[in-house]
Amino acid sequence: MASTIDRPMKSAGVMEEAGRNRIHPLVIVAVALAALLPVLTLATGLISSFTYLQLSLMLVFAIAVLGLNLLTGFNGQISLGHGAFFAVGAYVAAIMIEHGGLPFWSTLPVAAGFCFGVGYLFGFPALKLEGHYLALATFALAIAVPQMLKYRHLEPITNGVQGLNLIKPDAPFGLPFTPDQWMYLVVLATAVVMFWLARNLLDSRIGRAMRAIRDHGLAADTMGIDTRQIKTITFGVSALYTGVAGALHAIIFEFVSPDSFRFELSIALLVGAVVGGIASLPGAIIGGIFVQVIEKYADALTKAISKSVHLPIELQPWTIYGIALIALMYLMPTGIAGGLAALWTRVSGRGGRPSG
Question: What is the secondary structure of 276-317 as a DSSP string?
């Protein structure tokens, strides 16, 4: 797994430029159009509530992939356990709403702070591990957390294997939006803030230190960078992002259970980060879309492939992840975002050359 990820990380300079430059006007236009979708729906009625649910989940997974990208793409630490932080954030929000009767918006900062603390504390022993060993430690975390949520002494809080049911909040102030439309706007606003904060973090001194540690840890330590502290903070921030995504997922999905956060979720987030583009902010959006689309259509797609080529066995949905990952490693080693950025650079470079 490490060699699969190291290859795109070595050529991540193209994506980093795309993620760290100032905001492109097209990005502002895209966000404005996305925010106007519910208004257009009120006027035309063309977009269903289910579509808003899917769009919201894409943004949620984009935030989660961004959190993993901060750790793996920009700091060089490999994690196979971010589904655990996703689960923790989801359960923090669900417990506060179900048992505390608190409004949904108040759960987001609490889930963020709690997951930052969990990630920061986990980062301390993880500092002694590198490469495959760190990946295995985080993988163990992904397996352990769902089982811990089933622990009988925690059942009064987590409700064990039955999970917790939530109710999607209505739009406030009498706004004429459905719950799905309102939560789409909330998730969109949260995603914009989270990506803006990530861009500013990467442009800061801490962000430069993160990339220096990724590129050459020993040289960064020699230059006076506190590599232990930076790595631990990065782990905490990464868990914070993933926890916020988990909290939003719980509110949107209206249900949480331990089996919703099995270790496959951690693998899906990692594959989404690689497919979208390691060390790329736009790649996190592409990765979030990929994770949601594959989750929704993988089963039907594998059955269609098995039927069309007359395979003697039926492919499993996870086969699509493997096929996509292998194909991207050969066709676009830096992910979709990196491939598109390289293509744009090549095309624009040709256009700027004098003829003859």
Answer: H-TT-HHHHHHHHHHHHHHHHHHHHHHHHHHHHTT-SSPPPT
